[in-house]
Amino acid sequence: MSGSASATLHLTAAASTKGERFLIAQCKPYQGQRSGSKPKNWQVLRDYLERAEYVRFKRAMWDDREADDGMALAAYTSRDPLFDTVIATRDKDMRMLPGIHIDWTDFTLTHVPKGAYEVIGPYNGLVYGHKWFWLQMLQGDSADNIPGIPKVGEEKATKALAGTACNDEAYGVVATAYATKFGPDAPDIFVEQAALLWLRTTSNAPIADMLRIVPAKASIKAALDRLIIRVKEQRETLNRINAQAAAYEDAARAEQH
User: Could you tell me if residue 49 is inside a domain?
Assistant: First the structure.
């Protein structure tokens, strides 16, 4: 449908840090609502996709971010996303990315230019472009347990951003809504939600990649610095715990022998 010459499967590795989203999330556990039940053959398919000896197709395995972020890297570093980037996924998060989007169910195409704020799918009527990120900032993402602003659903978010034409205007609406709801804590909560929702191109200090479209206000930059420090400290603590656990297991095995 897209005329692509090749395809690459982007896969979040089983042991991936997922771009530290589990550490970023404080308001609600990231993906914390997901149950342990999976479709019948899910694990078999995962094993197949992860094992290199089975793979005869192009694959990008991501250990330091999610597959979503890998697709973002491909889209944002493309010469022209409308020429050489095609996104085929049922995951709604990728609608913020530039490129040619293939609808998962009817295979129609939506073209989203680089830097586009809002594109309405000509066949499915869905919102694409950066506006989709701002809508999620208000309404959250139930699939990943990201709350957004409580009691703001799709209808209220759509109404709030109606008439906005760029990222600066959307930021004004969203930042005001956060300030009204959360008061002095608004910048930190805003930055947390943005860091969870924004699809990034980098793994080093990846959280700051949101400044690609979020205005670098003093309050936002200060909150972003606090978040980066907190996540770094949490990662260092987690690494120490894991190292201690590994050393304990090695010692226990040595004793047995």
Answer: yes
Residue % of the chain over a pLDDT of 90: 69
Could you tell me which of 118, 89, 125, 119 has the C-alpha nearest to residue 104? 89
Name the residue range of residue 173's domain.
8-256
Tell me the chain's radius of gyration from C-alpha atoms. Answer: 20
Residue 3 lies in a domain: no
Contact between 133 and 148 under an 8 Å Cβ cutoff? The reply is: no
β-pairing, 99-102 vs 109-112, is: antiparallel
Band (pLDDT 50/70/90 cuts) for residue 204 is low
Element (H, E) at 19: none
Note the pTM of the prediction, 2 decimals.
Answer: 0.91
DSSP 181: H
Of 101, 87, 13, 62, which Cα lies nearest the Cα of 201?
A: 62
Output the six-digit token pair for 172.
């004004």
How far is residue 60 from each of residues 73, 89, 197, measured CA to CA in Å? 11, 15, 21
* pLDDT higher than 90, residue 38: no
Q: Which of 235, 26, 11 is nearest to 145 (CA)?
A: 26
Please choose, from the candidates 153, 156, 172, 152, the residue with its C-alpha nearest in 3D space to the C-alpha of residue 164: 172
Q: At what angle do helices 167-182 and 186-197 cross, to 10 degrees?
A: 130
Alpha helices (H) in 51-185, listed in sequence order: 67-76, 81-84, 130-139, 154-161, 167-182
Number of domains in the chain: 1
φ/ψ of residue 204, rounded to 5? -80, 125
In a domain, 1, yes or no: no
- pLDDT tens-digit map of 57-80: 899 999 999 999 999 999 999 999
- Backbone dihedral angles phi then psi of residue 200, each to the nearest 5 degrees: -110, 170
